[in-house]
Request: fold
Amino acid sequence: MIRLPHSHARILITAAVAILGLGAVPTMAVDGSRWGARDPVTQCAAIGASTALESGAVMALVRCEREEATASDELWLLEDFAVQIGAPRPHKGREELMTMPDSDTSKSVHSLRGAWTWVICRDPKAIAYSGGDPAKNCGRARVAKAEGACWVTTFGTWRCNMTGPAAAREVGYPPPR
Reply:
């Protein structure tokens, strides 16, 4: 029997879950202070399907899907976020299951459109080491035409996600707090 350190075992379990589609592994809270920034939203609130969607809840659900600390030591945050929520429409079934994980195909879907600015921060120590200003360790890239959806999961909660093309990244910005 091979014994792995806990961190290696978690990576293997996460990989197995992703490959086999076994469901979501709970994400750990990330502290943004390492980058001098606000904390990313990495844990989604459980908003019941009986709750009417409003823009604040949708933005929080999209943030928890998109914001993260990456394996390459960057912090990705959404800022200047605006969203429009479309009227309910029928779920397209199998066609949408890959883009809407855990979706209850008998429930309606709300289309989303909006925009945000990606803020991508690097460790201030790495910026200083390369001769840059550690107080300006972030870049920005506008996503002007994002689209996505909110759907009800088989667990009876809302889940939302959006994506879109980003403009070129501009560097030299302070982190959002």
The longest helix spans residues 6-20.
